[in-house]
Amino acid sequence: MLVLPLTSLLLAATTVSAIQYDLAHNVTPIVGTWSSGSKHVVTGPGFANPAQQSFVYPKTTGVGYSFSADGWYEVARYRFASNASEPNCIIGTVVWVHGHYDLRDNGSIVMTPVGDGYQQVQAPCAATSNFIQNYNYTELMRSWQIFMDAKDGPKLHLFQFDGAPVAPLFQLSAEPNMLPKQVLRNVSANVVTVTSDGLVTTETQASRKRKRSAAPEMKRPIGMIAGLVVVAMVATASVL
């Protein structure tokens, strides 16, 4: 995942209302609530409680995005990743983050978190098998398109900085389903910044001291795991 310097993010910023949609984006605006696969992973209060750094685990894995007309975004992710060499070492990650997004004139999207995002990582073969930490990094989508699916209606395709696709997202609502658009937990006591493979994570004193029992065990959902492309999730577990 590409991490951009703050000075780069401030250059050439545009507002959502200033974007002129071309033929690749004119089915519907990007504003609204979107979810992949079985559509069980949805942003908003039904997924995360930032004040408690807790999650409500969906029935299946996947990813959800919301975009507001005034430039806010929110992301919910839930994933299990297998290890071919160690089948018992399945790594689970669940992520919540929000902040501001810019639709650029070149067709890209820059998403900049406000600093209160967090994730739970469950790695049974790691030294610390289950922990919660801050999760805040700038994400660049090189391009995006919205098509009309014959069965499910508007379908959003996001392409990461290297062109890799995110799982297709289906529109659940033309209105964004979001938690309040403000900083939702105290992250003032930042003490550590970890950088690996383009992922920047800043931990707080409280999250570093969490014991394994503080993070509930994630249960793998029954049935097919929805397709989801998340860069550097596994790298995060291996760094710590």
Total DSSP helices: 3
Beta-strand fraction estimate: 35-45%
How confident is the prediction overall: mean pLDDT? 76
Class based on secondary structure composition and strand pairing: mainly beta
**What count of structural domains?**
1
**pLDDT < 50 runs, ≥5 residues:** 1-20, 190-213, 222-240
Membrane topology: Single-pass type I membrane protein
Main location: endoplasmic reticulum
Signal peptide: 1-18
Keywords: Endoplasmic reticulum, Membrane, Proteasome, Signal, Transmembrane, Transmembrane helix
Structure description:
One of its GO terms (cellular component) is endoplasmic reticulum membrane. It is a single-pass type I membrane protein. InterPro entries: Rot1 (IPR019623). Residues 1-18 form the signal peptide. It is found in: Endoplasmic reticulum membrane. With 240 residues, the chain is mostly beta strands. The protein has one domain (6-239). It is 7% helix and 38% strand. It has three helices and 14 strands. The chain has helices at 6-9, 205-209, 233-239, and strands spanning 32-36, 48-49, 54-55, 62-67, 72-81, 91-103, 109-113, 118-122, 130-134, 139-149, 153-160, 169-173, 190-196, 199-204. The strands form three sheets. It has an eight-stranded antiparallel barrel. A two-stranded antiparallel sheet has the order 2-3. A two-stranded antiparallel sheet has the order 13-14. A hairpin with a 7-residue loop joins strand 8 (118-122) and strand 9 (130-134).
